[in-house]
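Backbone-to-sequence.
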């Protein structure tokens, strides 16, 4: 179970609780996995890696306050699969991690054998969280930013590529008012744990929440 081909699966863990990291290290020995590194943050882990892990086990809430979606992206860009191992009490964080490309979610209430079975699947190229999983999360209105009709009108134009000035002209609003609407929407997404600092992130959030419509190209 713990091998891809004839070699043990290489894993790493990022968790800000030392007891969890040490417990995971012991479990790796028991289950026959090779722990290549462990750290309390993603930025601490990556420089430590002398061998590339096939799977990084990642907690969602870390003491450095880093965004889960950004952590997932950093690890995927490094070239490893990501498995979320968390109490998963903040659903917005779960969703953002899955949308960003995390391959699986195992909650800390599950058995250790469940975690390692999932690591094995992910290391062998299996995405454990299917589209149905994300769809189930999407159906929870807790994730969805509550936007006014005017905010949507502004954001749809802005996120589709128009400048602030162009949006203001199109809607017969001042440039200041348009910016105010955009900043308010950014605040709403940030409060949900789904930051959207740039135009591309705003577009992604609107698409995730179904605000752009089926005919958006």
């Amino acid at each position: 179970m713990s091998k891809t081909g004839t070699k043990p699966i290489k894993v790493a863990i990022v968790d800000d609780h030392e007891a969890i990291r040490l417990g995971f290290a012991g479990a790796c020995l028991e289950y026959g996995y090779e722990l290549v590194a462990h750290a309390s943050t993603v930025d601490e882990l990556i420089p430590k890696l002398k061998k590339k892990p096939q799977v990084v086990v990642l907690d969602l809430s870390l003491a450095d306050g880093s965004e889960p979606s950004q952590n997932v992206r950093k690890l995927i860009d490094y070239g490893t699969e990501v498995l979320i191992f968390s109490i998963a009490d903040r659903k917005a964080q779960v969703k953002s991690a899955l949308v960003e490309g995390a391959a699986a979610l195992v909650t800390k209430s599950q058995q250790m054998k469940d975690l390692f079975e999932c690591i094995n699947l992910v290391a062998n190229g299996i995405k454990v969280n299917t589209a149905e999983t994300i769809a189930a999360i999407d159906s929870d209105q807790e994730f969805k930013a509550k936007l006014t009709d005017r905010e949507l009108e502004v954001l749809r134009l802005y996120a589709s590529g128009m400048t602030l000035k162009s949006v203001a002209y199109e809607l017969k609003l001042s440039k200041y008012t348009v910016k105010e609407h955009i900043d308010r929407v950014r605040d709403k997404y940030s409060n949900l744990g789904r930051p959207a600092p740039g135009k591309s992130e705003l577009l992604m959030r609107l698409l995730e929440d179904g605000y752009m419509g089926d005919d958006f190209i």
